[in-house]
Each structure stands twice: as structure tokens, then as C-alpha cells.
Amino acid sequence: MKDGLQPDSASTGYKLVSQGIGTPATLARRTLLAELLLLALPMVAENILHMLVGLTDVYLASHLPTHAAPATAAVGSISYVLWLIGLIAGAIGTGSTAIIARAIGAKHQSLANSVCGQSVTAAILTGALLSIFFLLFAQPCALLTGLGGDAYSYALFYIRILGLSLPFSILMYAASAALRGAGDSLTPAISMIVVDVVNMGFSTALSRGWWGFPALGFRGIAIGTVIAYFVGGVLLFVVLLRGRGRLRLYTHRLRPHWLTLKRIFRIGIPSGTESLLAWMAQFLIIIVINRADPTNVMAAAHIIAVRVEALSYLVGYAVATAAATLVGQALGRRDEPRARQAAYLCYAVGGGAMALGGVVFICFGRILTGFMSDGKAIADLAAGCLFITAFAQPGFAAAMIFAGALRGAGDTFWVMVLNLASILGVRLPAALAVGWLLHLGLIPIWIVLATELNIRGLAVYMRFWHGGWRHVKL
Questions:
Q1: What's the average model confidence in pLDDT over 210-227?
Q2: 138-148 as b/e, with b when 16 or more CB fall inside 10 Å?
């Protein structure tokens, strides 16, 4: 053909050439952007609702008739426990996402299904062990938060009841990671939206006594979360058994296959180790904040600022997850230029959204924090934290999105090294010095946190720019 439509092997469908409407490179970028949006937008919707869960919990706690500040501090401290659970599940999910993405890219269906089955088995066993641990050691875990009085009692109850749901919650996270590795972000997004709606509905009803439920106050918030995790674990297990897209869970794949498990954990353990040590550093910082102010004003302001900041990074997190899938699938097809292009496109989209979020924090931070708390001192302090973190959003985006791209390539070792060097070498010692030794308060601590995020973002980007990820073997 001389004019009109010509087959284009680089993208689906056809390209228009003689009219000058598109070139192969232009159409490839459009196709990649479409794939990114198809992967990221369901996760953005999921993350928005998940953020609303966190905001709902903080709102319910901060508006209890009595002990609002201790309840808010307890909710915030327990959010770090929930974060830890997600990170443990992520150690399984990172490996399964990377391997499944490459298997799908290489059209190796049996390997993808095998990894799915082994991920589910690992998640259930891990959850069962953690459940036993949390039930046996709830008191030491609550003491570690640094909370006292009513805040400690609230945290202790939350930890005890949370232990019952851990096999279901870790299964939920691992199943979502497997589906995303296969390129299906819609199913886990819909499932998590169901989970979040259940969470918000039951937490609100049980804490306020709505719809015929007893008014349990803080305990209702915790029970609502646990009910939601039960629902999520069962729902995603059934989805995998029925099969979705290019992935299906077969019961015979649940039997431990040590070679496949080794492959999953060879990728996941560096990421899990990194996440665990990073979590420990973050948890030490929250302990310092909790102990610095017996009135819990600093702790409440910190938690509100973190929750509102999620308005920005929830988009970056969704794009980072999409980057892992896009890079992994491109490398599975041995298309390194597409993998590199995908990472930069993801940063352009996610980094731009997070920078816009920073502008919102500068202009409307006090309005947002005022909605979350009736206490003027808490709202003012939280707004100051948001103003500071606004200037860290581009670096935060780079740290998340380029790390996601590197993890999709299986380059989890260097992600671990760089993240830990930044967190343990800069963030933790500087925050401890400012908050614990010098007692300078919450605002200087957030200045440290924002500075470290920019340093970490630059370091992770330099690793991606170096290109060593292209040679990682899975």
C-alpha cells in the first residue's frame, strides 16, 4: 500500500502514515500511555477509597465525645501496624508481580498460574504465623507505640482483634499483587473498593451506633476494619479460583513448590527486608512523637498531616505499581527501550500529579486539616507539616515510581540498598536528633522528612539512569 492504513507490529491496529497523522514512535507512546492509564486509574480509584478509610478512621476518632486526642493518636499508631502487615504481604507480592509480569509477557501461562498458587500458599501461612504472634504478644506491641493511658488501652484492643484477620488480609494483598502482575488492575481495584466500603460502613455504624448497631466508640472502628479484611480475603480467593483474565488459581498449585517459592522470595526478601527496616525507622520516629507530648496534640497533628498527604501520593503509588507491571512485561518481551520509556512516562504522569498535590497543600492545607480536627492547635500544626511536605512531592514521586520500575525489572537489591541508606543514614538519625535530643517539635521533624525524600528520590533515579536493571536475571 502507498497510502492509508498499513499494519503496525509495534502497536495494535493500524497506523496512518501518508497523511502525517502519526509515526510509529508517536503511536507507541500513545499505546503505552493507554496501558498506563488502564493499569493506574483503577488503582487510583482504589487508593482514593482506601485513603477515605484512613480519613474516616481519623475523623471518627477525633470526633468521639470523650478522649478524642488519645483515640486519634491510637488510630495513627495502629496505622503503622497496618502498614507493617502490608509490607510483609508486599515481600510476597513483589516477587509474584515481577515473575508473573515477565511470564505473561513471554506467554508462559503455566508459570504465571504456578506463581499465583505459591503466592497464595505463602500468604496464608505467613498470615497464620503473624496471627499467633499478635495474639500472644499484643501487650508488648502496644507498649512499643510509646502511648500511655487511654491511648495505650485503645491500641491494645486494636492489636488483639486485628490478629484474628491477618491470614485474610495478607492473602488479600498477595492476590491483588498477582492479578496486577498479569496486567489486571481492575479486579483488585473493584475488590478493594468493596473492602473499603465495608470498612467505612461498619466502622462508622459500630462506633456511632447507627442502623441498629451498638455504639462501641473506638472499638467499633477496629471491629469494622477486621470485618473488612475477612471480606477482602474471601472475595479475592474466590476471584482467583474462578479465574480472571490470564491468571487462575488451581488447587493443585497450592501445594508448596520449593523452587517456585525460592524464586518468589529471592526477589521479595530484599524488598521485604528493606521495607521492614524502613518501617522500623518510621516507627521509631512515631514513638518519639508520641512520647514528646503527653497531651497527644503532636501525635494527632502528625497523623492528620500524614492522612491528608495521602491525597497526593496515592496517585504516585498507583503509577509506581503500574510501572512495575509495564517494565516487567516489556522486559519479558525483551523490549528494553519500551521498559525505559514506560518508566519515564510513569514519572511524568505520577510526578506531575504529586506536584499538583503539593500546590494544593500550600494553598488549602489549613482548610483540609480544619475539616479533620476541631482542635485549632492540632489543625494549625498539621497544616504547617503539609506546607513543608509540599516541596518534597517531586522527590517523593521519583522515590516511589522509579523504585517501582526497578522492582518490576527484578532489581530489588539496589532498591533496598538505596532506600535503606537514605532512611537509616539520613532520615532516622536526623529525625531522632531533632525530635529526641533537641526537642525541637513536629515542624523540624517534618523538615527532615521532606529533605530525605528528595535525597532518596534522586538516588533511586540515578540507579535507574545507570541501567543495571536491564541485566537482572529472574
A1: 89
A2: beebbebbbbe
